[in-house]
Amino acid sequence: MTSTEEILARCRAELRKASKGTNSSSEQEAGGEQEPTASFDPCTPAPDPFAGSAHLAHHAERSDRYQQLLKLRKEGLTSKEIARRLGMAERTIRRWITRGIPYEKAELRRKRHNRFDSYLPYLTERWNQGERNSQRLFQELQAQGYKGGTGTLYRFLRSLRGYSASSEARAERAQTVPETPFQQFSAQKAVWLFVRDFSDLEKAEQEELNAIRQASPTANTVYELTQDFMSILRRREGERLDTWLEKVRNSHIKELQRTVRSIEKDKAAVLAGLTLPHSNGVVEGSVNKLKFLKRLGFGRAGFALLRQRVLHAL
To answer: Where are the alpha helices (DSSP H) in 11-119?
Structure first.
């Protein structure tokens, strides 16, 4: 399931690109004149999201979501509206706008981490409260212990002014900017659509799954392989494992090749688990219960009480 999530994470841009054509005419109509915006320093996407690394896959998903944020902000939408469309917290949207995308390259993080960074949340809050006097804000920062000059503060305030617009104008602008599919797409949530049986999904989930499969050939291939493996698991058809492994090899999806290598290392045990009705689930459940009871009494009682609680629980 981890491999499936990694693949969906790097497929996010592919999904949005596929749906972009259906909304291109609407976007051209909504183009018009754009409000002045501050120039941020977005992080360059990971050079090779196909490298089979969970970190790179999630980084690619974050980078794509950040590009969405910048595009919607440039079109004049408020932080609240962007948060609604992307399915994110408004606080996170504001933090990404003022501080950039998380998980930047190490050198960019070091460059941005300075004495002024710790005052950004306060300045953003005061700006949202309506304070526009830069000299007064500078005095407030000095009262909190800020030792820097005014240049950094003025540059930050200029970026905020670039995004300033009346709430009425932004609300009208939001109505002219069309909502596109997969704006709220999350690999972590979508993976559950892939592992569950199609008949168990609600109607809205089925529609979302069909849209993902139609928009991305890679995602469609992963879905078919995932459902095939889940069928082997549910029906205990371990004899089909070799056929399934061959399909995965032919798919040439790098994340799934790691899964094949892992299965090959302990194939006998995997085959037994997919064929025999026996399971160590009862043993694992008992071990989990024992650990839970032990942690409840940690630092509070001795072995005698722990022994009594374990005997009464089993």
So the answer is: 12-20, 24-29, 54-74, 79-86, 90-99, 106-112
